[in-house]
Amino acid sequence: MKIFKRALSAELMSSSSAIFLIILGIVVAQRAGNIVRQVSKGILPNDAIGTILTFSLVKLMPMMLSLAIFLAVLLTLTRWHRDSEMVIWMNAGLSLRQWVVPILRFIFPIVLIISLLSLFVMPWATEKAEGYREQLKKRDELSSISPGAFKESSSGERIYFIESFDKLGYEVKNIFVQSRQHGKTGIITANRGSRYKAENGDNFLVLHNGRRYEVIPNTLDVSTTEFERYDIRIETKESAPEPGTAQGKTTLGLMQDASLSDQAELHWRFAIPISTIVMVLLAIPLSFVDPRAGRSLNIMFAILIFIVYNNILSIFQAWITQGKISSWVGLWPVHLCFILLGWYLYHRRKHLKPLIPDLFKRKPKAAA
């Protein structure tokens, strides 16, 4: 019995670690690509990539851990079925129920971590991410400029182009600024410039050794001025603070608030660790491999159940927010349905029946 538990724990540990790293790499690539796309369009500044990516990963960490241990249990037991190791252990006297306790003992610390992340760390990361985005909205227009890209000011009166910044973002090179004031179009070019903040808090872009061209539309009048120094006041964005969302509130704050959106968010936070336990228990009967049905059929069916489970939880959460379902009922009907599904699958495996009944099997004809 000790050999069985030791072998199971060792393989589950290695499988869950490898699967989690794979999922983490996929999520990082997907989220980083999305953030870089926003930076290239000028929606986000360059220095916000790392911070926003970190907050996104922290928010997705509970779901990534949940999926990782579900796939680890499923793939480990599937391999044991495929390599006939499961047959050996069952012939040694192990029943299907005796697999439950070692697996639950293995996932207990992981589910505890998922609970802490879901109830405390995830709302903290959401709140910090919302606050950071508010700070980005209030930053001056020069901070959102990407090197080598044209950027229009929030008022629409200026267009900036800067070829490159220094590491700190205070020194700029090869600047182009187009502005519209008093019915005239001005174009300013300079080889280098710098930023500074005045005593009253205003930000300025200082251009050195450049030229200013002033053009009156629909005329041929063009005036050229060379300068050694030219100061441009940088506009700052003023935006009203947006109200905090339910995702950014603490769990204690959700318990004290009676709004439907807060109650729905509270049920969702508790649903993540609960669904993890349910899906891991479902992975035990789902790991059975029928040699005649192919090696990957059970894995595809298990992943389909995982996706359906989480999508139905999201639907019920939306219904709670809309008032279609009482907050006292919450997401428990979804958990109960999948617990009953697990009981059904255990019952069929216990009696060595296929997990999905063959409804289209032809009955043998009676002898004449």
From TrEMBL:
It is found in: Cell inner membrane. InterPro entries: LptF, LptG/LptF_permease. Pfam families: LptF_LptG (PF03739). It is a multi-pass membrane protein. It comes from the Bacteria. The chain crosses the membrane at residues 12-32, 52-78, 99-125, 270-289, 301-319, 325-346. Its main location: membrane. The keyword Transmembrane helix applies. The keyword Thylakoid does not apply. Keywords: Cell inner membrane, Cell membrane, Membrane, Transmembrane, Transmembrane helix, Transport. PANTHER family: LIPOPOLYSACCHARIDE EXPORT SYSTEM PERMEASE PROTEIN LPTF, SLR0882 PROTEIN-RELATED. This is Lipopolysaccharide export system permease protein LptF. It comes from Methylophilus luteus. The gene is lptF.
